[in-house]
Structure formats: C-alpha cells, structure tokens
Amino acid sequence: MRADDINDIVRATNLYARGLDLGDPDEAASAFTADAVWDATAVGLERYEGHAAIHAFFVADAAAVERGAHILSNHLIDFDDDDHAHGTNYVFAECEMRNGGAIKAIALNRDSYERGADGWKISARVISPMLTPQMDAFEV
Q1: Residues linked to residue 124 through DSSP beta bridges, in sequence order
Q2: What residues does 126 pair with on adjacent strands?
Q3: What is the pTM assigned to this prediction?
Q4: Residue 139: which pLDDT band, with cuts at 50, 70 and 90?
Q5: How far apart are CA 41 and CA 49, in angstroms?
Q6: Where are any strands of DSSP class E within 10-101?
Q7: Which of 88, 114, 110 is nearest to 5 (CA)?
Q8: How far is residue 140's CA from residue 108's CA, in Å, rounded to a whole number?
Q9: Which residues, 6+ apart, have CB-to-CB distance to 65 below 8 Å?
Q10: How far apart are CA 92 and CA 1, in angstroms?
Q11: Kindly report the CA angle at 65 between 59 and 25, in degrees rounded to 5?
C-alpha cells in the first residue's frame, strides 16, 4: 500500500533530521543507502558519496554543533516503481556552533529513495537554498 511506503520514506527523512539534532551521526546516517549521495554544495558545504563518507561528515557535524534543529515539511513523493521513488521536502535548519558561529537555512531537499531489505532509505539528497543561507563559521 502506497500510504505505508510514503510513511516509511518520511520516517527515513525524519531519522536523518533527528539524528543531526541529537548529535547522533549513526541515526542520521541510518537514513541513507550504502551508495547514497548527500550534496549540499549549493549552500556552501560539500558533496559526499557513499555511506561511510556521509557518516564521517555527520560525525564531524555533531562535534561542531552545540545545538540545532532541522524542521522538515511539505513532503511530496512520487514513485518510479515498487522500489524507487523521488520527492522533495522543505527544511528549516538553525544551529548554534561550538565556535560561536550560527547556521540558518531554509532549503529544498530534492531526494531519491530506494527500498532495500531493511526498508526505504534516501539514495540521494541534493540540498538547494530557498533563501540566502547564513553559514557563519561552519567548520567541519
């Protein structure tokens, strides 16, 4: 049933956000496939390919962020076939950095999703700013 698939995909995106906000890189990375891509070059960050590289970035992020919140909304998901989908969601992110800097961004996540043996995961996330991001002293 598609409603269950949609719920599982939204859950994966929310695990990503909660993991980032609680400083839990394992949880944040659990939302991604083994060969995933996370691309935030449009907001001044990097592009990471593969689960290990994405996880390593989330580890560095957790060490750099004092506290933060990622609020996701407006999920739209379209199915390509039984095991592949794509969609968008909006993110409002605000973080206080340990070095005194701050992050504030409103962006659009353009995602691809894949269902594997352990459920739906993000196979690609490209983050595009909706407004000019504030990335003061973001060092990871």
Answers
A1: 37, 112
A2: 39, 110
A3: 0.94
A4: low
A5: 13
A6: 32-39, 47-49, 65-81, 84-97
A7: 114
A8: 22
A9: 20, 23, 95, 96, 97, 98
A10: 30
A11: 25
